[in-house]
Amino acid sequence: METFTGFEWDTANAGHVLRHDVLPQEVEETANGRHVIIPARTVAGEARWRLYGKTAANRYLAVVFTIRERRFRAVTAYDMNVRERRSYAAQID
């Protein structure tokens, strides 16, 4: 996975994460903090990744994202489920 230099937000992806009660700022905090990244899948020729991490307020988030032109583009974000939190804790500690 290539590194990213910033974030890409538009009405579509910001609206999608907001539907899951996640703010774009929380996604950015999670991506900039201590996190774990694993491959997700490829959709329409575009590689997707899954990021597990915490916000500044210690909210555990899972973020599915892609990298476009070196910018982090969230596809969706939501609160981690129990299995995801266990996986995150096992890899981060």
How does this model look, in words?
With 93 residues, the chain is α+β, with helices and mostly antiparallel strands. It has one domain. The chain is 31% helix and 41% strand. It has three helices and five strands, in the order βααββββα. It has helices at 11-19, 24-32, 82-92; strands at 6-7, 35-43, 46-54, 60-68, 71-79. Strands 1-5-4-3-2 form a five-stranded mixed β-sheet. Strand 4 (60-68) and strand 5 (71-79) form a beta hairpin. The mean pLDDT is 91.
* Shape label: globular
CA radius of gyration: 12 Å
Strand content: 35-45%
* Strand element count: 5
Return the structural class. alpha+beta
Spell out the blueprint of helices and strands.
Blueprint: E1 6-7, H1 11-19, H2 24-32, E2 35-43, E3 46-54, E4 60-68, E5 71-79, H3 82-92
Parallel strand pairs: 1-5
Antiparallel strand pairs: 2-3, 3-4, 4-5
Quick recap:
The protein is of the alpha+beta class and 93 residues long.
Comma- or semicolon-separated keywords:
93 residues, 5-stranded mixed β-sheet, alpha+beta, 3 helices, 5 strands, single chain
